UniProtKB/TrEMBL annotation:
Residues 341-560 form the RagB/SusD domain. SUPFAM superfamilies: TPR-like (SSF48452). This is Putative outer membrane starch-binding protein. It comes from the Bacteria.
Length: 577
């Protein structure tokens, strides 16, 4: 949709030091135009500048860099066999030079500068006043979105509101309070002008809207409340902001879907529950570089295990490309998702069955029954005969319950109980499966859902707990839990009481509802539970995690390229540098 990313580059790189000391071109092709201040003072320039800023969201949300920074090293996931050991386990090699942090930092500032150009120049463009106001509101929403990522990772960051067109080698590190003041004001300004919701007249998929801005504003109030920059009214402001959005959902045109399984159904990313989604297209020329780096939506790869190294299985479009960056902790699969009678989300979140797809007869012949047959083998089992008889038969099954060695030996497929799988193949988050891409190894062409109404309810519950409203917190949580019973469970048996509405329970509910949706590290830091919960549930990270890991280290490219007063990593915790 936002195709100008292939036609326009941002003139000048924001804070040359932030971008590694030079002007990194986003594109290999020769740009057809430059987003100069003069161009941004025209109606065409404003529109193209906005297109570029929207395209910039692809370089953060859906990228591998953001994914590993918010998903790894939490209570939900441990390192997959191809994952980042240093980041997931907080080893001594997790340093400011870690490339994922460099990319998130660089891309956020690059696109903040694009937003600054629009905000600064659009009011001088010859275009209807209403269009000017809306363009500025969209740019402020996007600027707040990029800054929200920066402050949640690094707290004190450079705050720039001026469009920079030449290389700059100095950077003042502003306080978190200053950054939050800008973010909150940007969101308030955007809410006052933007259409009410994602389904409002004239709002295309992936466009800024007031509902998304209200959701982010509530989240930012909760975040600030957890920091030294907290203001006395933050939790109450969060509660009222989120409550009003939920109360006005019918007017805004948003709703919880009846079936949790439909939220991430391929092709349904513009459903009534989605507040904001980063857009991608089947025309690869208008996505990223098509090499699974920045700009590409690689979420379809991140959770995929090495199924193709199991008998009778080959890599396929249906089952995906096995990047296996992370696998769920046993706490997630065995405790959080233990209830599966009335709560249907386990089966709608995880792939647990793989069907044989090899066309090579020898693959089936090699996986043969032993002689003698094990006790409990199927009646049609023959010593030396195929255990998996043909393509389409069950090849791998993970029932999510304990299984004995005898059961595994007697199964006519590979059977993994809930303590038998490992970091090469595990229950696989399937929210991002993509069968529309051109090649099985390609990145996803699906839009990436960033915020949805179910999280608004859970954030409202968090704010209710923080303002001593336990019954209201339970009510918001119960709205999500009742939906989770559809279609076969009993909604009444899913409800909790006010006494159950604690931060610990809420964090478990967030896992059941939002697993793998690029928020967890932020959530644990915001609720002050990262260290505690990682030590309880992530054995790999337990020996190494320290207080300083509640922040990400300022990237090395920033440290190396700033002239004059230096950025440093010791503002909050010594010895990060």
């Amino acid at each position: 949709m936002f195709d100008c990313m292939k036609k326009y580059i941002i003139c000048g790189c924001l804070l040359g030091s932030l971008l590694g000391g030079g002007c990194n071109k986003m594109l290999e092709e020769e740009p057809k135009a430059i987003l100069t201040p003069e161009f941004l003072k025209t109606e065409k320039g404003v529109k193209k500048g906005l297109d570029a800023a929207y395209a910039g969201t692809r370089y953060v949300w859906g990228s591998q860099d953001l994914f590993v920074y918010v998903t790894g090293g939490t209570d939900e996931f441990i390192k997959g066999t191809d994952g980042n050991t240093d980041l997931n386990s907080y080893t001594s090699n997790f340093t400011p030079g870690q490339s994922n942090g460099n990319q998130v930092w660089m891309q956020c500032y690059r696109w903040i500068n694009a937003c600054n150009g629009i905000i600064e120049n659009a009011p001088q463009a010859t275009m209807p006043q209403a269009d000017q106001d809306k363009a500025v509101a969209e740019a402020k929403f996007l600027r707040a979105m990029f800054y929200s990522a920066l402050v949640q990772f690094w707290r004190d960051v450079t705050v720039s509101t001026t469009y920079i067109t030449t290389s700059v080698t100095t950077a003042k590190r502003n306080t978190l309070a200053e950054a939050m003041t800008l973010i909150i004001q940007d969101l308030k300004d955007a809410i006052a002008v933007l259409p009410a919701g994602p389904k409002s007249a004239g709002v295309l998929p992936g466009k800024a809207n007031a509902a998304a801005a209200r959701h982010l504003l509530g989240r930012m109030y909760l975040f600030r409340a957890s920091t030294p920059a907290a203001q006395a009214s933050d939790k109450e402001d969060a509660y009222q902001t989120l409550k009003s959005l939920i109360d006005e959902r019918n007017t805004v045109g948003i709703s919880l879907l009846p079936d949790f399984g439909d939220i991430f159904r391929e092709g349904n990313e513009a459903n009534a529950e989605v507040l904001f989604a980063v857009q991608h297209t089947s025309n690869y020329a208008f996505n990223g570089p098509n090499n699974s780096t920045v700009g590409d939506n690689v979420m379809n790869h991140m959770f995929i295990g090495q199924y193709d190294k199991r008998s009778t299985m080959v890599r396929s479009m249906d089952y995906g490309r096995p990047y296996i960056r992370v696998v769920p902790t046993f706490w997630v699969t065995d405790t959080v998702f233990k209830e599966r009678v009335n709560d249907t989300r386990y089966g709608k979140t995880f792939q647990t069955v793989w069907y044989a797809n090899s066309n090579n007869a020898g693959d089936y012949d090699k996986f043969a029954w032993p002689n003698p047959l094990p006790p409990g083998a199927p009646a049609d089992a023959v010593p030396g005969g195929r255990r998996i008889k043909k393509k389409g038969d069950t090849s791998i099954y993970m029932p999510g319950v304990p299984v004995t060695s005898a059961q595994r030996n007697a199964a006519p497929y590979l059977l993994y109980g809930n303590k038998n799988w490992d970091n090469t193949l595990a229950p696989t988050v399937k929210k991002y499966f993509d069968n529309k891409r051109a090649d099985l190894n390609d990145q996803s062409v699906r839009p990436l859902i960033v915020w949805r109404l179910a999280e608004t309810y859970l954030l409202a519950a968090e704010a209710a707990i923080g303002t001593s409203r336990p019954q209201e917190a339970a009510d918001y949580i119960n709205a999500i839990r009742r939906r989770a019973a559809y279609p076969s469970g009993d909604p009444a048996l899913m409800e909790i009481t006010a006494a159950d509405a604690t931060i610990d329970f809420l964090l478990e509910e967030r896992t059941r509802e939002l697993l793998g949706e690029n928020t967890r590290w932020w959530d644990l830091v915001r609720t002050g539970t990262l260290i505690e919960r990682v030590k309880k549930h992530n054995a790999e990270a337990t020996p190494n995690i320290q207080d300083r890991h509640t922040l990400r280290p300022i990237p090395q490219l920033q440290l190396d390229n700033t002239r004059g007063e230096k950025y440093n990593n010791s503002v909050y915790f010594p010895n990060w540098n």
